[in-house]
Queue: 2 jobs
Job 1
Amino acid sequence: MNHHTQVGIIGAGPAGLLLAQLLYQQGIESVVLESRSRERVESRQRAGLLEQGTVDRLRQAGAADRLDREGLVHEGVILSYNGQRHRINLTELTGGSCVTIYAQTEVVKDLIRLRVETGNPVLFEAQATAIKAITSSTPMIQYTHNGEEHFLTCDFLAGCDGFHGISRQFIPESLTTVYDKVYPYSWLGILANVPPSTHELIYAYHDRGFALHSMRSPEISRLYVQCDVTDTLADWPDERIWAELQIRLGTTGWTLQEGPVLEKTITPMRSFVSEPMQYGRLFLAGDSAHIVPPTGAKGLNMAVADTGQLFDALVRWYQDGSTTDLDNYTACCMRRVWRVQEFSNFMTEMLHHNRDKSSFDQHLQESRFNQLITSRAASTLLAENYVGMAAKRASEVLS
Ligand code: APR
Ligand code: PHB
C-alpha cells in the first residue's frame, strides 16, 4: 500500500508519541510506526524523573492530567558518601524549580491513550525497514506491517526510533561524527513492592559501588545498585541485592524497608552522540541521536526537549514556510546535548566506584564530592543542571 501524511514518525517512545500529539493539536497530520506491540511498549521499565520543562511540554500536549494528579514533586535530593548524607535543596538553589517523579512508562501510556482517543492510532508491529528520497520534498518510509510491505510518503520524517533504530544510518556516513564512551560498570535496577524508605531520592557513593533509592509511587520503590559489566541476573539473587542496598544506602538511625521484587534488569552505561541530527528532510530526536548514562536522569528529558524543538520548527514551516528553525535544529540541540552529556558524565564519574582508577584519581573523586557539599556555588551548579535550567540556557544561546 502507498499512503501519504505530513510528518512520518518512526518510533512510539516518548519522543515519537509526544511529537505526534503536539502536531495533532496544531492540525498537522502524522503517522507513527512502531515495531513492537502496544503491550511491550507500555510495559518497558525506564527512568522516571521529569524536569519542569518536560512537565510543561506534556501539559502543552494535553497529556498531563494523570501526571498532575499522581506525580510526586521533589524539592530536594540527597547525596550520600560512605553513609554520610547531604541534602541539596533544589528549589532554594534554583529560585523555585523542582523535579517530578513519574515513570516514563506512564508517560508513554498516557500519550498512547490520547492518540487512540483522538482516532489516530499508532501502527504497532509496523517495522520501518528503509528511508528513501530524504533530500527530496517527498521523502518516504518503507515499512512492513501484517506481513506486507508499505510505503509512506511525507513532507518530513522524524527518526524517533531510539538507539537501536534505523533512522540514524540514513544520514550519510561521510557527514556523520560519532562520539562514544562506554563505562566499566552497569546498573542493576529493581522495582519493589514496598513503600519508599525516603521522601527524596538518595544517590549514594560507596566504596562497594554506587546505589540509588528512587520510587514510583507511595507504594512502590525503584532501586539501583552498581554491578560489574559481566554480571548477569543469576549473579544477583534478591537477598544479595537487598544486602548491598542496605550497606551502600545505609546511614546511622535509618533502615531500608525491603519487599517483594517485582522486576529486575541490568543496564549497561554509555554516553553517545551522533552529529548532525538532521539531513535533508530527516530529523532525529531522542535516543536515536544521543544517549546518556542514567545517573543524571536525563534520557527522557532530552528526548522531550528535542521533540519540543522539532515541533516548534515544523509549526513555523507549516505556518509561514520559514526553514530558519529547521536549519538550526542540530546546532540548537547540540548545545543542550553537550551540556547534558557533561553533567551525566560528571554525576556518573563522581558517584561510581571504579576499581581501575589510580588512588590519586580516587582522591580527586572524593575531593570533588566534598566540594559539592561544602560550596554553595558547586551545589547551585549541580541543582541548576539537575532541574534542567542549565541545559535550557545552553540551547537558548542560539535561538
Ligand atoms: N521501526 C519502527 N519502530 C522502531 C524501529 C523501527 N525500525 N526501531 C525502533 N523502533 C521503536 C522502538 O521499539 C521504541 O519503541 O522506536 C521506539 C524508540 O523509543 P525509545 O527507545 O523510548 O526512545 P525515545 O522516544 O527517544 O525516548 C528516549 O527512552 O530509552 C529511554 O533512556 C531513554 O528515557 C530515554 C527515552
Ligand atoms: C528512576 O526513578 O528510575 C531514576 C531516578 C533518577 C535517576 C535515574 C533513574 O538518576
Note: Residues 2-73+98-179+270-352 form a domain with the FAD/NAD(P)-binding domain fold (CATH 3.50.50.60).
Job 2
Amino acid sequence: MLPPSGNLSSLTLIRPDDWHLHVRDGDALDVVVPHSAACFGRALIMPNLRPPVTTTVQALTYRERILASVPQDMVFEPLMSLYLTDNTPLEEIDGAKASGIVIAAKLYPAGATTHSDAGVTAIELIHPVLERMEKLGLVLCVHGEATAADVDIFDRERIFIEKTLSPLVRHFPGLKIVFEHITTSEAAQFVRAAGTNVAATVTAHHLLFNRNALFAGGLRPHHYCLPVLKREKHRRSLIQAVCSGCPRFFLGTDSAPHAAHTKEAACGCAGCYTAPLALSLYAEAFEAEGALDRFEAFASLNGAAFYGLPPNEDKITLQRKSWKVPDYYSYLNDKLIPLCAGETVAWELDASMSDRVPS
Ligand code: DOR
Ligand code: ZN
C-alpha cells in the first residue's frame, strides 16, 4: 500500500489497465497504440469505427491490426468490445462470449457521440440481447446520455439515469454494467448506491477539469469531449467517488484521437487525446486529494476484478519529475494535439524502471 503523503519522489504500482480506449484504425494505430502500450497492460478497445465493429469476426481482425502496432519491446493486450445496434443477432453475443477476447458490448444511444449513428434507437429493441448477455455474463458498457434534442446538454447524463439506466438495472439485475466516463454527482451517487453488478469508468480529464476549462480565455476545442465537462461540484463528486475506496470505480481514459483540423473547426469533433499523459494526470488528481494510497486500486485492480480478470503481473514506476507534454504528434498528414499540449505535468513514467514480464 502506498503512503497517503504527497511528498513521494516516486510511485510504484501494479501495471494499470485502461478500461475505455479509442485507437481508431489504419495508419492512426502506429501513432496511438504505442502511447497506451507504454504504460497500460491491457485496454478495452471501443468499437465506434466507421463502419462500427458489430461482429466478433470483425473484432478479432481489428485486434490483429492493433497488435501489429504494438512496439516489439512492449507487451499490450487489446480486449475487444462489440458495437450494439438495433439488429444485433443473439448469435453474435454467443460468439463474443465464446471468443474469450470480446469481453463486452457497448451501448451507444443513436446520435449520442462520435460515430454513434448506427447505435441503438430504442432500448427495448435490444432487450433480448441484454437478456442473453445477462445469462452469459458478457459486460454491457454504456454511453449514458439521453439524446432527445430538447434535453439540455448538461442534463443528458442525469436524464439518461432516470429514463433509461435505472429501469435497465431493475429489469436486468444480473447484467454487469459499466457506466462509462461518468461526469456528474448523480452518476457517482447512482453507482455507489447500486449493487455489485454496476460499475463506472472515470477519465482523467473529468477528474481534473470543470466546464470553465472549455472557455478559459476563449473556446478550447481540445477540452471538448462527450459527455461534456460539467460544473465544479460534479468534478468534486467524481474525485470523492474514486477516492472513496469503492471498488466499482476504475480507470478508463476515453483517450480519443482526432486530427487537429477536425477539432479546430467550425463544428469540432468531441474527444480528448490523453493516452500519453493520462497516468500523470490521474496521479495529480489523486495527489491533490491526498489519496495516492487509493490510486493503485483504481488504476490497476478494480477494473480487472470487475471483468473477472487477474491483475497484471508486472509493475510500473512514476517519477516525480515535471515534463512538458508535446505540442503535437504527427498524425495522418496532420497533427494530433494532446490535452495539455505544451504544458508541464508533475509525474513521468520511468521507462527504465518499468519491469515488463516477457511475452
Ligand atoms: O468525446 C468523446 N469522444 N466521447 C465519446 O463518447 C466518443 C469519443 C470518440 O470516439 O471520439
Ligand atoms: Zn469513448
Note: The longest helix spans residues 156-171.
